[in-house]
Amino acid sequence: MNWKRATIAAATAAPVIGLFAWGLTRDPNNIPSPLPGRQAPAFALAVFSPGQGGLMRPVGETMRLSDLRGKVVVLNFWASWCLACRDEHSALSQVAQTYEGKPVQFLGVLYNDVPDKGRAWISEMGGQSYPSVDDPGARVAIDYGLYGVPETFFLDANGRVAFKNTGPVSPGMVRLKVDSLMAAAQAANVSAPAVATPAKDSSTPNAKTGSPK
Amino acid sequence: MIRLLASNAILVALAVTALGAILTPLAIHRGRRDWLMLSYAAVYTNFVLVTVATLALVWGLVSHDFSISYVAQVGSRATPTFYTVISLWGALEGSIVFWAWVLGMYAAAVVWFNRKREGNLVPYAAMTLLVVALFFHILLLGPANPFQPVFPVPFDGPGPNPLLQNHILMGVHPPLLYLGYVGMTVPFAFAMGAMFSGEVASDDWARITRRWTLVAWAFLTAAIIAGMWWSYEVLGWGGYWAWDPVENASFIPWLTATAYLHSVIVQERRGMLKLWNLNLMVGTFVLTILGTFLTRSGIISSVHAFTQGTIGYYFLGFIALVLLVTLVMVAGNSDKLGSDGRLDAPLSRETVFLLQNMLFTVFMFTVLIGTLFPLVAEAARGVKVSVGTPFFNRMSIPIMVALLFLMGVGPALPWRKGAGPELKGKLIPGVIVGVLVGVAALVAGARNAYSVLAFVFAGFALGVNVEEFVRGANARVKAHGEGWLTALMRLISGNRRRYGGYVSHIGVVLVAFGVAASSTFKSEQEATLKPGESLTVSGHTVRFKSAWMREEKQRQVVGATMEVMDGNRVVGTIEPRMNYYPTSAQPVPTPQARSLLTGDMYMNLMAFRQDGSNVTVKLIWEPLVPWIWFGGYVVCLGAIIAMWPTRERTAVRVESAAPSAPRLSEGQA
Amino acid sequence: MTNVHSPKRAVRSLAAVFSLAAAISLAASAAAAQAPALPGAPASAPQDSGALRVQVQGTLTDAQKNDATLESATKSVASQLRCPVCQGLSIQDSPSELSQQMRTVVKEQLAAGKSQEQVKDYFISKYGEWILLEPQAHGFNVLIYAIPALLVVGGAIFIVFIVKKWTAAGPVAAGAEVNADDD
């Protein structure tokens, strides 16, 4: 046996094993989105399911992201054929109700589905407190870099993507994100109203009016 | 009851393999060769026990014994019996059981055929086989245990993954793959045995396992082709190879094994390349384990991301052990494997073999690096990247084109010597065929340089390899006055290994034609049709007749009947379908192809109106794709010719080789 | 070695090879004649066999009107983008709904005058580098292209070296071969 060569050869295995060991701690299917931290892609989508009570928006109204400036936006992509969407539905619907009257907008976006099926699904699931819009051709979904459903985006009051969640959300997590984004908006508003929003988006009047007094 | 029987069989098998493996070095060091019989007995016993466990699992599946965790996971009362039986390899645990069984079978067979052989090579090879088997038993008792109790016992199960019960090829591809993959353990075990026993300088390990390697290679080749076919028939995108990690995992060891099959000829004839061949064979085994690790551990995202659990860590441990032991043994023994090569002239067949081996090795590294790169990039840059078809095609097409060229040059060149006067005569037919095929490709509209070169070199290789048969048969006709066909048959049977190799080459050429034509001339069109409307792609017309729906036991099927038109005449039908399984939200597309000599009319049902008033279908013209499947058969036929035992030659070999050599001929059984 | 210059056998083998070549070429050209000419192929190809003909009554007439360059540019970009809901397929190859929609987006952006690079950049900005099926060849990613290239060069140099060494070692003594036949 040539032990010198054997030792050198054996040493070459170490980085390979190390790489694999590290790799086992990673999830290859978890692809981080480049969107958080960036301005959220604009959209203008028509409401097909109005929601309930104070959160209601008339069917056919066009929801624009630019009109929601100053509000925290929770954008939930879903579909009637999506099994995991069933898991998060009631939690999301109930949490949304608790923010009624606050500067928060929950919005469902129907993904690769037809509004009729979406409506049937909503009534089967016992209603949806917030409105849902249709996204024909999945344009907005692609703009948001969607991989599948459900995916939920949390946008801050300045229209920036703060956080993206892949898969069903938990009520606690939604509350945590929404509360912290609301708090941040409030703090920014109180301490430095002049800093405000980036140049290209600061033209929207709603940025001030929609924020808490 | 069955569950306990199977569980205990695996448990006992674990003990038996462990004891057998420990016994081997003890017996050799104590000089107690009689103990070795016990170690061999462990190999046979292991096979019996694993067979019991496998049969028990199959029985559990067939009898819908949902108290067994694996049956509860993949079984269903509605699944047809055929798919119930083959769901043995439909999920992780069952596939490991099947693996252990195939390994047990190979080990028992190879030890049985070599049991009377003197020396320490076979005992150490048996020990290596036992250690590998031991690892799989550990998996079966740990992270991949299919025999866990289920309570309360469910009345029914979800059934196998819809994709795996949608086509009959699922019953063919996986067993072939395991037979090929696991078969590579045999030459590996003998290579390790040679090093453990210090007999590495002799070529015995390579000679004993020659046919075993060929058998495993033939199975692996057939498995890869069957996998391509399955992907083509089931996945509905009209392609057969997507460079998915799971495809790469089967292809990477195939590349090193193919290189080995060629370079081992140089070792046998000229006594050269011993160290290189040892590396190739040990590497092939390591790559099979690595490939299994990559696709089973969930470390890389892939089509068959089998359930992920702790199994990755077990595999990692085993890879670490195997890498460590093989690297130490091969590097430590490298001194003994020097060979003094001699050549009369640089341009000889040996040189072509070297180039061919280099290209196969680079090919292997390219695919391996491409497959692992997402992991490496994430470790180095923290960014997820993808490595897919565009990369692999860009890198591998030049290599494949060069290999086609070498496949034409190699058989024409003599051993040792440089190009003799007969070289021209051997090359001319190839050049003629190559030019003709190239011109045909150009006329047909091929403009990509590599595509044209692929046609030219495939034609060239075809001409040269066919010429070998023609020349040899002609010589026999002249020398013995035989009829031409008789002469051809006797030529082949007189040197099966050589001419079997050439038959395989011709099969590879057919595959190359199919791949080159389908990637150059494929055309497709999607259309929404009302009944009576037709769609034409590349001169092939189909007319939509009707859409229909039917209930089957385990699924609901929606289909469209498309009539194949020749002018106004209906010459056949194609029925693309969508299969709806209760366990899956999305339908499983079930394309159908109508095969002609010149290609496939491949149809996929994309969408349909509930009332059947229209359907959206895709028609793809897939030129020469059937040649790929046929070429695959020819490659395997070549391998069968090459491994078929030759009586006269076996008799000759007895004098020169070790006493057990004649038994080799039975080894392919 | 056998005598290869016997005219009769040479003729016979040539005839055999020729007929085979003719059969192959016939089959290949028959297959190919029905295939569409690649975009930009010279018009010398027979008109009838070259063009992709779609005859669908009623709908789809705009498919015929579509600009061939836009189609091929769309195909080129779509082949390089990874389908987010499949495993490793491009959005060109994938039959999934999202892939079809992404192809539409690609086509629209190209039609609006964006370059292929700009369309790819759009998708990278939405999905990250992951969306590219082939890593961009700069920075660390160069390795994946460089390693195979270096291996070929290194391997070729090594082969030249070893063949020179073996040739220099001199001719093989008669009968020195371990095994005279191929079997």
Q: Would you mind describing this structure in some detail?
A:
The complex is a heterotrimer of chains A (213), B (669) and C (183). By secondary structure, chain A is α/β, with parallel strands linked by helices. Helices cover 37% and strands 17% of the residues of chain A. Chain A has a seven-stranded mixed beta sheet. In chain B, the strands form two sheets. In chain B, strands 2, 3, 4, 5, 6 and 7 form a six-stranded antiparallel beta sheet that branches. In chain B, strands 1-10-9-8 form a four-stranded antiparallel beta sheet. In chain B, strand 4 and strand 5 (569-574) form a beta hairpin. The relative contact order of chain B is 0.08. Among the domains of chain C are: 61-131, Helicase, Ruva Protein, domain 3 (Orthogonal Bundle); 139-163. Helices cover 55% and strands 0% of the residues of chain C. Chain C has helices at residues 7-33, 47-50, 61-65, 68-78, 97-111, 116-127, 142-168. The two termini of chain C are 18 Å apart. The model of chain C is unreliable at 1-11, 24-61 and 176-183 (pLDDT under 50). Chains in contact: A-B, A-C, B-C. The interface between B and C is large, with 119 and 94 residues.
Q: What would a concise description of this structure say?
A:
The complex is a heterotrimer of chains A (213), B (669) and C (183). In chain B, 62% of the residues lie in helices and 11% in strands. Chain B is of the alpha+beta class and 669 residues long.
Average pLDDT figure of chain A:
85
**Residue-averaged pLDDT of chain B, rounded?**
89
CATH architecture of chain A: 3-Layer(aba) Sandwich
Roughly what percent helix of chain B?
A: 55-70%
Which helices and strands appear, and what pairs or packs with what?
The complex is a heterotrimer of chains A (213), B (669) and C (183).
Chain A: H1 3-24, E1 44-49, E2 62-64, E3 72-78, H2 83-98, E4 104-110, H3 115-124, E5 132-134, H4 139-143, E6 151-155, E7 161-166, H5 171-191, H6 206-209
Parallel strand pairs in A: 3-4, 4-5
Antiparallel strand pairs in A: 1-2, 1-5, 3-6, 6-7
Chain B: H1 2-30, H2 33-62, H3 69-74, H4 81-86, H5 92-113, H6 121-141, H7 173-183, H8 185-197, H9 204-208, H10 210-234, H11 245-270, H12 274-296, H13 311-333, H14 349-381, H15 389-409, H16 422-444, H17 449-480, H18 484-494, H19 496-521, E1 523-529, E2 534-537, E3 540-551, E4 556-566, E5 569-574, E6 577-580, E7 588-590, E8 592-596, E9 599-608, E10 615-623, H20 625-643, H21 647-656
Helix pairs in contact in B: 1-2, 1-6, 2-5, 2-6, 5-6, 5-7, 6-8, 7-10, 8-12, 10-11, 10-20, 11-12, 11-14, 12-13, 14-15, 15-17, 16-17, 17-18, 17-19, 18-19, 19-20
Chain C: H1 7-33, H2 47-50, H3 61-65, H4 68-78, H5 97-111, H6 116-127, H7 142-168
Helix pairs in contact in C: 4-5, 4-6
